[in-house]
Amino acid sequence: MTSVGRWEVWIAVVFWAVVFAAMVAARLRARPTTAHGSAGAGQTARPQSKASTATGALP
Question: Rounded to whole angstroms, what are the CA distances from 30 to 2, 21, 36, 54?
Fold first, then answer.
């Protein structure tokens, strides 16, 4: 039984490492490119509207 458990641990470690590497690779590929670099990761830059800040404007 202990020899089977040892193999299961090594298989789990290898599987975890493969998944972790795939996650890192996907994260690096998904980086957004912005002209000014002002948007955070995964966010797109939204233009500011002056109409929404005017007095009496609806939200």
Answer: 42, 14, 17, 37
Q: Is 3 left (phi over 0), alpha (psi -120 to 50) or beta?
A: alpha
Q: Give the pair of three-digit tokens for residue 6.
A: 């040892």
**How confident is the model over 32-44, as pLDDT tens digits?**
666 555 555 555 6
C-alpha closest to that of 21 among 32, 11, 29: 29
Amino acid at 42: G
Per the listing, tokens 């800040």 go with 53
Please tell me the distance from the alpha carbon of residue 3 to that of residue 10, in angstroms, as a whole number: 11
CA 25 to chain centre: 11
